[in-house]
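Input chain follows. Return structure tokens only.
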Amino acid sequence: MKTALIVIDMQNSFLHPDGENYYPAAADVIDNVRRLIAAAGACGVPVVHVADRHRQGFEDFENKRLPRHCVSGGFNAEFFDGFGPSGRPNEIEIVKRRFSAFFATELALFLNEQSAEQVVLCGVKTNVCVRATAQDAFANGFEVCVVSDATNSNREHLAEASLEDIERYMGRLISTDEALEMLS
């Protein structure tokens, strides 16, 4: 089964101590996500680096529920050190303006063009962007695998509930080690 790795929101906003949405536990996923990217890159598996970015000075529906964040061109919107496309031929960037990396982006089209049948999801935050992406991946007909030790949230109880829902209704939970085997 052809697989793609989707790396969600590994940006300064969440991971850098000066980030506007920083939470200390975010750092716990960095090493595992880096291992997944390296394994995928070594084997030519498509890697999709997803960035949450919003436009300065324009209305954005997301701001009805959240403060303005990850403004394009700003520090918070940039990928955290060591993340984002590195120039390898199998890596792309998808910019999203909502929680799901699929909503109003070309992600499903890109994955279908690569003949991907399965997606491996990692990144931040489990109960928001990872969950929304998992749900839309399932709705778009992809087999969904979420790397449970390569995603987390600042709301641990919501992360746990989201992982339970993902496993029950949308896909399966795997460890970094299991994902590394799938990606190689």
